[in-house]
Amino acid sequence: MGHGSHGEQIEVLRAGEEHIAQIVELASSRSLSQADAESSVPVEGGFLVSGYTEDDYLARLTTAEHFYVAVKGTEVLAFLLAYSSDQVEHDEWLNRRIKSTLGSFLVIKQICVAREAARRGIASMLYYHVLERWEETPVIAAVVDQPPNETSGRFHRKLGFQELTRLTPPDGMPRVVWVWRKPREAMLRAQYATSVDLYKHEDNTNWQKLNNFFYITAGLAAATAFSLGKEGAGGSLGKGLAIVIAIIGFGTSLAFSQMLRFGRQYLLARKSAVIELEEYMAWHGGHRIVTWHASEGTDAYLKVSPTGLIMVLLPILVGLCWLAVIGVLIAN
């Protein structure tokens, strides 16, 4: 049970014969044949590919493990139809292929929300009504991805789904198959701790690289000064040795710049993994830590780690200094 954006009471009920007429009407209004081919449609207003008839819906009242409607009073605002792989029909190419490859599952076959009720969280309400009651096998949802449906991707990730595969059935419309598995609290905690540790390890590794770079640069600078100084070889020999050392310094700067560039990319990848886990845990009652305030416009920098960019630029700056030294030595 929930409330819409205007405070109305919305209930989730098991679908019955009294709802079938409205379900058929709603499904017809959201069928793919009614869609504008140039639209990119979110889950809440998603179009239906399966052309179910009234008899099909009546049959699913008894065969589908999950067939729910979201109603306000007697008005059906949305419905969700889901059934186990044991109930898959012979003409369901995609579901039969997944079953033969991966085993049993529950498929969310149809999710449909009336246009006037879209973007009120009703689709999420119906999804959670199923996910909270299903524990036996993974849950899958196949979404048409032509054109690419970014809204659907965000919706499913928010609910804890992961992209399983991409397939193109005989109808020629490519699908993205999302999968949800019952979360295990202990496993989530362990994975989150591991992700944070990997993130910290990558950060420490990058700082260690920069630290080593400064040690090497200081040593090369001292060797250059020695070659050109009174205690060095002096003359043309000392100048030639200083040029060689400066070239080594320039090459070292480039090498460390690349190492730190890739290290920053690994760091951002680790951070992204932590953020995804944190977002999922926050949706289920946890708190954001890594991305705290990151959604605010003035604090958007929290998502990208600008310090890492400075780490990459420092060796480049030192490399330019080595080039200047080489130029001066050659000119003189």
Annotation keywords:
332 residues; alpha+beta; eight-stranded mixed β-sheet; 52% helix; elongated
Structure description:
Helices cover 52% and strands 15% of the residues. It is an alpha+beta fold. An 8-stranded mixed β-sheet has the order 1-2-3-4-5-6-8-7, sandwiched between helices. Strand 3 (66-72) and strand 4 form a beta hairpin. The longest helix is centred in the C-terminal third of the chain and has 49 residues, at 235-283. It is elongated. The model is unreliable at 34-47 (pLDDT under 50).
Provide a brief overview of the structure.
With 332 residues, the chain is of the alpha+beta class. The chain has helices at 17-29, 54-63, 93-102, 122-131, 150-158, 185-228, 235-283, 306-331, and strands spanning 2-3, 9-14, 66-72, 75-84, 106-113, 139-144, 162-167, 175-180. β5, α4 (122-131) and β6 (139-144) form a beta-alpha-beta unit.
